[in-house]
Amino acid sequence: MKFLVKIIALTAMAMTSTFSVASADDMRIALVVKALGIGFFEAAAKGAEEAAEELGGVKIIYTGPTDTTAEGQIEVINSLIAQGVDAIAISANDPDALVPSLKKAMSRGITVISWDSGVAADGRQMHLNPSSNALIGNTIIKLAADHMPNGGDVAILSASATATNQNIWIEEAKKVLPNYSGINLVATVYGDDLSDKSYREAQGLMSSYPNLKAIIAPTTVGILAASQAVTDAGKIGEINVTGLGLPSEMAGAVDSGATKSFAIWNPIDLGYSAAMLAHNIANGAKTGPGSSIDMGKMGSATLDDNNEAAMSDPFTYDASNIDQFKTIF
Ligand code: RAM
Q: Which of 143, 257, 154 is nearest to 213 (CA)?
């Protein structure tokens, strides 16, 4: 009898510990995106889930506002603070507006990093850029210029006017414009990473600038909407749509000729790396200039003086390779 009691007690103990490992002890990492419903971020979430599976004992909370505003993200952050998550990895709609709420999160012991679209240095422990900003800025202009042997007018269709990443890339693009003689940037407009607004902004560009030769959209939402607007306007062959897109979303535009080429990095790897970094920093990995933080199968991130690191170079897609990639992301 005594023996049986002992067995029951041991079983109960084992059950308790199994339960705590499986749920309450999980590290909860919130992957906060610019807005829900964007394919690029869904691909990144897939990568974050891969990281969680590899690490074990990690739960990814994929969340974000319904539109690409800082206000929406502040609400999300406040709710994550109230839930007491362990880490927040955010792609920001504004570099400064989120700083007070993210500082509050850090003061409660929550690890905060930004990835994709950054937060100002005092609002996060580190930032992960997808690639070198200067390289992305040059790439988006080169993609347009490569198909404009005689030069001409180009316009930029961006995401939101406060998006950290797009604003930096546009700034870098403007710096290298003088290297592309004959390429004339006539306007920059904002579609807020909403399909319908981006589509209307692309239509507006076509009517305001009748000599437009290219629309450059450094956003996966904008490039897709612009290629649709150009197609619907019957301007394939006249206006080339380029910038940053997902092969899975852009395959039709490449087939139709609305888009000759575009670029992107691997969003799955980016989400995987962001989750790995958030996990390792929450587990005590040191941040600070010069420190190196493990990113699992993606190697490690070495932080610069601004506590930033960059991943890989953007890759260019066109009719020759899009079929190989359109089923991946
Ligand atoms: C959209 C978002 C994201 C950006 C990509 C290229 O999905 O704006 O932040 O990195 O485009």
A: 154
Listed in order, the ranges of the chain carrying CATH 3.40.50.2300 are 9-131+266-312, 133-264
Q: Which residues touch 19 (CB under 8 Å, ≥6 apart)?
A: none
3-state secondary structure of 208: helix
Backbone angles phi, psi at 277, to 5 degrees: -65, -45
CA dihedral 146, 319, 36, 137 (to 10 degrees): -20
| pLDDT over 60 at 3, yes or no | no
When pLDDT is cut at 50, 70 and 90, the band that residue 6 belongs to is very low
CATH architecture for the domain at 9-131+266-312: 3-Layer(aba) Sandwich (3.40)
Specify the pLDDT at position 23. 61
Task: Tell me the CA–centroid distance for residue 97 and ligand 1, in Å.
Answer: 19
Report whether pLDDT(7) > 60. Answer: no
Q: How many CB atoms lie within 10 A of CB 16?
A: 10
- Which residues does a 6 A CB cutoff place in the pocket of ligand 1? 34, 38, 40, 91, 116-117, 159, 165, 193, 219-221, 244
| CATH class as words, domain 133-264 | alpha beta
CB 249 within 8 A of CB 262: no
Phi-psi region of 192 (alpha: psi -120 to 50; beta: other; left: phi over 0): left
